Each structure stands twice: as C-alpha cells, then as structure tokens.
C-alpha cells in the first residue's frame, strides 16, 4: 500500500479544501500498482456529505464567528466536525469488482480495530450503517463510493473531540438526535485518548497517527513506507481542483434551493432522506433529493428522470422503472422511494432507525 501525505515544501497542508482536492486528484488521475492510503488533518471545519444542504446541517453564524470552514465531500453520509486534534484517513482500494469491501464497513474498520486494540483500546464495535463505537460512544464515521473501478473510502478517528464546538457548529437533524446540549454530544461521542494504554496517554495526534500508519503499512518506521511524492505539476492541478470545487462557494453552499413541497424521513439502513419539489398543475416542475445517504450512482439522474412527471404513484413508478433506486440511494428500493415521495405509509418500514 502506498502512503501519500499532504506535505508541500516540507510543510503539512491543513487547508480543508486542498485536502479534499488531493483526494479527488489521486482518485481520478493517479493509478498505482497497489492500494493507497492518505492521512489528513485540517484546520477547524465542518465536512458535509455530497447530498446534504449546508444550511440545514450547520450553525453558520457560530462558524463565521469562530473561523470554522466548510467543505462538501464527494461521497455521501452525514456532517462531521474536523480539526487538528483528530486524524482522518482516506483509502483507494484497487479492483472494486474483485473485493467485497464496498458497503462493508465492518471490513473497512477491521484493520484499524486491530491497531487500536494493540494500543490498549477495548470495546470497539462497528455499529449502524457506518459508525465505529467505543463502548457505545461514536469515535468514527466512514464513507465510501466506487470511482473508476476503485473503492474510495475514508474515516475519521476522534482522539480529542471538542464537544462544545461540535455541539455549537453542527445543527443536528432532530429525527436523529433529541438534544442539542453538550451533555448529549458527550453521551453520543467518545474519545480514544481515555481508552489508550497508560504509556500512550500523553501521545500527540501526530505520534498517534504515525503509530497507526506503521501498523497499517506493516513497517517499523515510516521511512520504510512505499510512497508517492507529488510533483510541482501535481500540485498545480490540485490547486486548480481546490479553487474550482472544494474552496468554491457554489460547490459547498449553492447546490440547493427552497421548495414548496417537501418530504423528510429517516429510514433504517438508509439514513435521513429529504425530497423537495415544485409542482405545477400536478406535474413535477423541479426536484431535489438530499440527505446523508450513500450511493454508487449520481442521484441527479433520478431527479432528471422525474422532471415533468405527474405527481401520481403509477407515473412516478413508470418514470423510475429503468433505474434501480438502490444504486443511487443505498438500501432503498423503487417501491419504497415512490411511497416516500407521495408520503404513502408502509407498515413494513422502520422509520426510527
């Protein structure tokens, strides 16, 4: 496995947009003869999922007052707070068609669980769709997608979570959690530091990450790791991607609009799903699908398929018939999606997951 670190002119890159641009550049253009891992640690920022509306997920005035940035991922999932007190890792796994790792968060987390157990951490479990918990408290959230035949995956590790900033910067969906209070955040979010063996209690986040990387890469020292070093030409393209996409207001904030008709529900195994529609003479004039769900295909294809379709069960079902909704919204089938849009109750659905 290759190690790619966000180091430029000998300095670690902490800009959240540049960190995401590095991942996009490597994912889309760099094809090596082995899998890739790239760690990143950023300035205080909120990272939201591909299909989320920023204004529904964050407390923007608080973020502005405390210089907290925002960046949109190119994978699904929910919003999370990141800073330089915690480390995140991304992976590119070659030959997606020959591995069962896509959607298998237990398998994704298995190596890191083994590493953390070596550091004295006990009580780790993969729970829900994509979380890693420590004695019932969340210490990581993961996301995945398939791009150009490779599985693009990543997760964060909470070594020293800042509970107060998490609580104030994020604007949680009330279908997911009942309280905004710091005590509620502490009850849900865990910390790895307290669970480390005594000899690791005073470890820095950089030392912590180096230990993890050495174990994952199976080397005694990171100097022995197989690396790819960015060239000046690589950095030029990365800067362009950051400017055009991840540090661009339109990408991070400008993707969503207000609608006259909206449905909002949380589905077990899927996540929170929102659909906004403008209806003219009983036909869908505009539609947006958003939420913290995952999917392999671009959900905009479903939106395009429904434009101009009558707000009618059979008409919507017919328009969606050429598509497998599960490819766009993981664990959601066509029938359930049509019922959701029309707010048709389904006795078999668990809406509290």
From TrEMBL:
NCBIfam families: lipoyltrans. It is an enzyme of class 6 (ligase). SUPFAM superfamilies: Class II aaRS and biotin synthetases, SufE/NifU. Keywords: ATP-binding, Ligase, Nucleotide-binding. The keyword Ligase applies. Its EC number is 6.3.1.20. GO terms for biological process: protein lipoylation. This is lipoate--protein ligase.
């Amino acid at each position: 496995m290759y190690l790619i670190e966000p180091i430029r002119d000998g300095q670690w890159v902490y800009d959240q947009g540049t960190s995401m641009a590095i991942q996009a550049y490597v994912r889309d253009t760099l094809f090596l003869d082995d899998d890739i891992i790239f760690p990143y640690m950023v300035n205080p920022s909120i990272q939201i999922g591909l299909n989320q509306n920023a204004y529904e997920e964050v407390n923007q005035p608080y973020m502005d007052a405390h210089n907290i940035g925002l960046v949109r991922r190119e994978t699904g999932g929910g919003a999370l707070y990141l800073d330089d007190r915690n480390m995140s890792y991304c992976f590119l796994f070659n030959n997606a068609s020959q591995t069962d790792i896509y959607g298998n968060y237990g398998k994704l987390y298995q190596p890191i669980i083994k590493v953390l157990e070596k550091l004295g951490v006990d009580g780790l479990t993969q729970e829900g769709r994509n979380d890693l918990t420590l004695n019932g408290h969340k210490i990581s959230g993961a996301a995945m997608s398939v791009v150009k035949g490779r599985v693009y995956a990543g997760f964060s590790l909470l070594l020293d979570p800042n509970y107060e900033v998490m609580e104030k910067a994020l604007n949680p969906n009330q279908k997911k959690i009942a309280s905004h209070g710091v005590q509620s955040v502490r009850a849900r979010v865990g910390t790895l530091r307290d669970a480390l063996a005594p000899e690791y209690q005073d470890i820095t986040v950089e030392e912590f990450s180096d230990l993890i990387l050495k174990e994952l890469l199976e080397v005694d020292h990171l100097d022995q790791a197989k690396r790819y070093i960015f060239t000046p030409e690589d950095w030029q393209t990365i800067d362009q991607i950051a400017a055009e996409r991840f540090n661009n207001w339109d990408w991070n904030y400008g993707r969503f609009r207000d609608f006259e008709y909206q449905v909002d529900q949380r589905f077990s195994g899927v996540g929170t799903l929102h659909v906004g529609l403008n209806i003219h003479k009983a036909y869908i004039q505009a539609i947006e699908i958003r939420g913290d769900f995952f999917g392999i295909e671009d959900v905009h294809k479903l939106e395009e398929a429904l434009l101009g379709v009558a707000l009618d069960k059979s008409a919507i079902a017919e328009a969606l018939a050429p598509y497998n909704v599960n490819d766009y919204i993981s664990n959601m089938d066509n029938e359930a999606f049509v019922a959701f849009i029309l707010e048709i109750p389904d006795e078999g659905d668990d809406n509290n997951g």
